[in-house]
Amino acid sequence: MKQYTKAMKARPFDIEAGKMIAILNSNDAKELGVLPLDRIQISCPRTRKKITCVVDTTETMLKENMAGMFKDVQKKLGVRRGEKVMVQPVAPPESVSFIKKKLDGHALSEKEIRAIVHDLGQNKLSEIEAAGFVSAVYFHDYNLEETVAMTKALSQDGLQLKFDHDKVLDKHCIGGTNGRATMIIVPIIAAAGYHIPKTSSRSITSAAGTADSMEVLANVSLPIDKIKKITNKVGGVIVWGGALELAPVDDKIIKIEHPFALDPTGQIIASVMAKKASVGAKYVVIDLPVGPDVKVHTRERAEEMAKKFIAVGKKLGMRIEAVMTNGTEPSGRAFGPALEAKHVMEILEGKRFDALAQKSCELAGVLLELVGKVKKGKGTDMAKEILVSGEALKKMQEIIKAQGAYALTSFDVKYAPFKKIVKAKTNGEISKINVKKCAQLARMAGAPADKKAGVLLFVEVGDKVKKGQPVLEIHAENKRKLGLAVEYAKKDRVIQMQKIILEKFS
Amino acid sequence: MKQYTKAMKARPFDIEAGKMIAILNSNDAKELGVLPLDRIQISCPRTRKKITCVVDTTETMLKENMAGMFKDVQKKLGVRRGEKVMVQPVAPPESVSFIKKKLDGHALSEKEIRAIVHDLGQNKLSEIEAAGFVSAVYFHDYNLEETVAMTKALSQDGLQLKFDHDKVLDKHCIGGTNGRATMIIVPIIAAAGYHIPKTSSRSITSAAGTADSMEVLANVSLPIDKIKKITNKVGGVIVWGGALELAPVDDKIIKIEHPFALDPTGQIIASVMAKKASVGAKYVVIDLPVGPDVKVHTRERAEEMAKKFIAVGKKLGMRIEAVMTNGTEPSGRAFGPALEAKHVMEILEGKRFDALAQKSCELAGVLLELVGKVKKGKGTDMAKEILVSGEALKKMQEIIKAQGAYALTSFDVKYAPFKKIVKAKTNGEISKINVKKCAQLARMAGAPADKKAGVLLFVEVGDKVKKGQPVLEIHAENKRKLGLAVEYAKKDRVIQMQKIILEKFS
Prior knowledge:
Chain A is of the alpha/beta class and 506 residues long. Chain A contains 19 helices and 17 strands. Chain A has a 6-stranded mixed beta barrel with strand order 1-5-2-4-3-6. In chain A, strands 12-15-17-13 form a 4-stranded antiparallel beta sheet, with helices on both faces. In chain A, helix 7 crosses helix 16. Chains A and B meet through helix 1, helix 3, helix 5 and helix 17 of A and helix 1, helix 3, helix 5 and helix 17 of B.
């Protein structure tokens, strides 16, 4: 490889790109023999630092002999504006050739997968290279060994929670909706004497994520050592995983998959299992809701995924149980952080026992059976006992206190002040409730940014309702948002929901 | 789709990104319900302009309620720093779903391909979406109809040369090396009475592109109307195609293919044919050098490509002949813009008739047969006649003058002043000459940026040489570069060349 080196002047731009990118005038690029997306090494003789960047070229933005760089690059080099730097072409990292290998349909070794994950983590691959990798996996998927290798690489690349025993349990829901079963399962499992350090996500397009709902009750942004300490003390936490740097490369891969909604099975499994491995979980229940409006559409697909989860778990020394659940209906009647949190607390307080409570006990029961606490077939009963006895509530309040309590009971959880009840206009029967449309309505009312805003359903599928009977209630922080939500509920575009819930009433 | 709109403050960044990208604080993105790589519309109430951008998010770069935008976006909106803009999520362009369709292995319609090319041209697709498209084509390639549709879409998306007759000829070389047969073929064809408006590329990794060599003789950066005028007047031009906006999207696709060296056959063919269609060519000869160090490695691959070129041409009303040539040796003895230009002029002046001259006459002959000027099998003879009679030289000088002459004869072309002759150290026979290594050596001497720098070979494969006999000559603009080249020629890493040319001598 040619090793031509050119002296240039540093030209920093005041912007953080989050990527190691350098910009050269097209003529300089030609002189160096590099094309856009090739790599150069920039070194600063004064600071004796050097860095490898992906090249972009321009004909207008930069004059010749200037090495343009974003803040990230400038900081790492410690270089000043106008200072002399040395620029030379360098070969792409080896991982680019591994990506090409996968593009060509060949399976990757553990070492190769580790190199790709490492370079993604270090921002050493361009977006185009990263997209090439994601496309390759979409086409060829992973075999079992590759899935295991990807799981290990993803979890080992980030921080890891480590416990001195293996009684660490966890749960995960693939394409979940609303309801927050997690906030019932975690205290049941912790009350049963196990560790369950649960990291959750915030909402992106739904009305609330588990982290958003839990944040109504307590602080969810905790550092990793605090999470370990609380788990050791009270048995469980429910925190936001977003800022924790557990398997951080997973988030980068998900970002790239997003535009085409690419979700190769192997990558989904590695992604979930890596996060479970990162918190040291040894017993995991995977909730697979099946339905036309959720991620997994058919029983066949759910079964295929279940088998793969179990196989990967085996290779990693983890015991996995995957459970198909009903994804055709909302898994709770509330949509919005506070509304869902209040609903969960009411279940823990013994004030209601509905489908969400039942589902939570079944999933917790699976975990209790898996870890050997109880005989097969008796897990749900034990979970219910822990719930109805009030032990789960007590444990939940310990967890909330340990995380810095905001609200300890359902009484402490308030709804947004402006509300509107939507009533049935005729008699009839509820035939379908579209979860996505409910979430959308809650978002229009302000959720999840307005924590107390959202939607409460008074009915479920199969209910017979009478004219004038309330079917749902919208809560919002101000009249404008309430008006927006009500207006949307009336518009054709949202009528999908009205058609379904209200077609016999509105 | 939700239509939540948020008022924000414009925060322009002083940098041209060449892409329509907006930057939002992660919290604002969450409030709007958009993920990185989703799209938002930004509108400015004052200027009444609006624009769709791909979203990137940040937690550090921007505070909440700021809509970050690069210069491109700011200019189009005409917005001032701090001014109020309205931001709302919008759906991705339809072309993203067409890309997904191709990713899933389905053939695309002409309309769908046109939409993708249009959106690539308008920078409406993110790099990741563009990379997804290129990967999809790499996996599934195009069928004949898709190749034809891509060719049309690429050429119609850019400027087009139009002539009022169909006697427009052209040639193209797939993965060519050195030698510049184009600069011999164009004057032969123009002298025979046909139009041949040849657009050429500059060097990227070779010692010179045709545009670089022609630029030693004349101005190659001409606007499209001038190209048409000169072609109508003298029959031909040899210009740089880079700034002409002929099939501009092709360049974008090639850029994305580059990191993985992806080159699906259908895309190569569409790329070449689009540029030919853009200049109005009706008769085209495709030169396919075959050899281990050039783009096409086997006869089978060359035959497959030849058939596809001919089939696509038929659908577009173009007559194509594809010719396999020997790609195992340099197609000329010179490397570097001026050295290659001088060599070509010496052939046109009748001072030498070597392998390059023979190849040029054969390719020109194919064109003369294709257009019906001469009976099959007699084309080469006619081309040679035009060459040896001096008609081609006369025509070349007309072309050079029309393009603003810098040099009219081989005498006017000078080499760089510092030179070093490399001699054979023992007796022996030349077994192989590695074209890539020759080009690299010329680049070390300064080519193509230093137009007069380069390498001249005195031998060809099969030549018997004696100890002390010159085998090659290096020219450079200064002692430092000459020293660099000589030093590299001695180093192990460049010794590949010595091993090959010089293994019996050094």
